[in-house]
Amino acid sequence: MGEEVKIRSPPVQWAERKNLVYVFFHVTDTKKPKIKLDTDKLYFRARNGEGQEFETTLHFFKDVNVETSKYSVTDRGIDFILKKVEAGPYWNKLLKDNKKYPWLKIDFNRWRDEDDSDIDLNDESDFEEMMKRMSGLQSTSNDLNDLGSESDDEEEKV
Question: Cα Rg for the chain, rounded, in angstroms?
């Protein structure tokens, strides 16, 4: 008999700004992640370079703009820049529910408090600068919405 493949939640880090949410999936050496972004959730499934499978759906605390959000696949993982539909107060949590997940952590390297006064960049320039630094940046509106048209056979090949 074949060995049963265990699918687990990927390690995820997140941070936010007034109008952005950064989400990073720590899945190394993935080639073709399955990603579907909706305004209220993000579905993610991938296999790392060692063959381990990861899958999760993040149900966001509030809505994001699918058309202006971006992601990048690198050897280290998959990096998302999600634009909030409503800029304004910080969400202070990523997900709708109040559960604590061991695989979901705050990215303190990117986190800035709402009242940080030493930040010279506004949220728009921060977003544009981050986009420039991310190589291989892909639009979520073109790539993610097309995944629904793939056959079931292709979806099985994570």
Answer: 16
